[in-house]
Amino acid sequence: MGGSMSRRAVAPQMDTVPMSNSNNLKTFVPAKLLRNWLIQRDAIKGFLLNGAFVILYCAVQTVRSDWIFARGTLDLYELARANADVTQYTSRTSLQSIIEFLELDCGKLTAHLKKACKDCDIAIANVDNAAWDMDLSHLICSDFEPRSASGRYHSRDCATVDETFAMAPAADGAPCCNNQTLFQASLSVMVWTAFHPELVQDNFMSTGKLSLQDLLDIDATLASGRPKFGDTGLIQRKKILENIAAQVPLNTQHAGTHVFVKNAVDAGFIAQVVINRNEHMLGIQNKAAWLDKVAAPDYVEPSQTYWSLNFTTTKDHRGWIVVMWLFWVWTLLHEACGYYSRCITLWELCEELLNPYSLFFLVTTFSPFFSEVLRSELSVVQWTLWTSINQGLLGLRCFDEGQHVSNGIGVVVFTVKEAFILLKSLMLVTLFMAFVLMLIYGQLFGLVDDDLAFGTWGLARNVQQLVAPASLEESHVSQMKSGALLFYYWSLFMFRIAFGSFIVAALVGAFNKTRAAQEKHEKDADTFTEGYERRGRDVVHRRDPFTIAMQMVRKLAAILWYLLTWRDYG
């Protein structure tokens, strides 16, 4: 009895930690329990801070991307295109149809769009930049100012702007998109300045500075064929037109448009239409690439991409953006203090930084910051992709930090980590076989199935069979029935039955291993060194966050009930 009491009175420091209470008496707390409690408190703080930043970051990027509002703008654009009876851009497979899009259909589209959308300002640019990185030299026409000192994109006074441009057309200026003649002139002066600057020099077509009539005369001269240089009315300097006329077919209405399109297809980008609705912008990027420039010089492969952006966030949502970055700084300081407290020596800090999670932490912390700093250097499509990846990684980090907050989340996180170790080799084999089968399917059925394009859906459809079996394509059966059936069942067995079952088995095994490790950890946290026993009450209460939250809710409900009924109960 005496020996037992003496063992409890003198507690080793390695198993217990002394704490002082209000009576200046030392109370010994089990070190394991205290360590777990401190880890949980630190994890809850990190989870809440990072969770607040993630919620604000995702909310701000959703407002910035403005895709919900832009979807309505795109519907208006498609309605205007249908009313104007304009062919869908992606259906234009010839060079001439692309030229017609700029010569005729752009004017129809802008006119009908302004009828369908009263608050729409339109700009057409020859670059794929966003409005934040455009000036008038990038614009063929624009109904709004690309930049202003206030950061706003105000509507232009089109009557004054068009009159000024008509009097002195220049490559660093742009008219509004109301007048198709001025649009073609703006496109011509842009093209001639870039490729044939002699045409836009003063005193070339007429005495004095370049005028709108000069640009129209150049198009008319080139449309009529090679000039007759024996005529006395033509000065010797105009011989440059002969070289250009050789590049333009006869009776071409707007030679500048023809030259522009041929050079634009070489670059892979034609023009983008930017629709501005009170600084809610939608960009429609029209692209084209040669089908085969040597064998089929008159045919192209058109494509379209879209972007949307809300430019009002810079001014109108500045408060939310400031709060978001305050939480980012707070989260960074919390994690930095964690590294400082965990690492006593420089060697321990180096080991900690070499941990794979440290790399994940650095990427998820600084990638949002750099995406904001480098935003103006990227196209909107690239920037949107970057921020989307950031949101996905931040969600994973928030999920990972929640493992110490909830037992359920912890089981899922540790199961995935444990299974990933087992699945690395299997996924490499799966991707290799998917690549091989992509090549096989392309050789057998690539001529009749456009979805088997190299490196695209042909690879993805094989990986998809891990979760859902692929269908037996009718075009494959018509092309080669035996090959279609053979490789359909081969793929079904290899991916769906074999590899898919292995993945499920690895996840189940990892789950069982995680549960066993968790039970061992919980049991170990409650055990004491032999010869010791628990006495009195715990200084550290072992309650999960859900229980604590429910107790706080009950206390708040009791206080609210008392405030409402104190007259009845006193």
Write a concise keyword list for the protein shown above:
570 residues, alpha+beta, 5-stranded antiparallel β-sheet, two-stranded antiparallel ribbon, globular, disordered N terminus
Number of helices: 19
- Beta fraction: 5-15%
Written as H for each helix and E for each strand, in order along the chain, the element string is HEEHHHEEHHHHHEEEHHHHHHHHHH
Coarse shape:
globular
What is the radius of gyration computed over CA atoms, rounded to a whole number of angstroms? 35 Å
Residues in helices, as a percent range: 55-70%
Strand order of the largest sheet: 4-3-5-6-7
The helix-and-strand class reads alpha+beta
In the predicted model, the low-confidence regions spanning at least 5 consecutive residues are 1-17
Cα distance spanning the termini: 53 Å
Query: What's the overall average pLDDT, rounded?
Result: 79
Biggest sheet statistics = 5 strands, antiparallel
Strand elements, count: 7
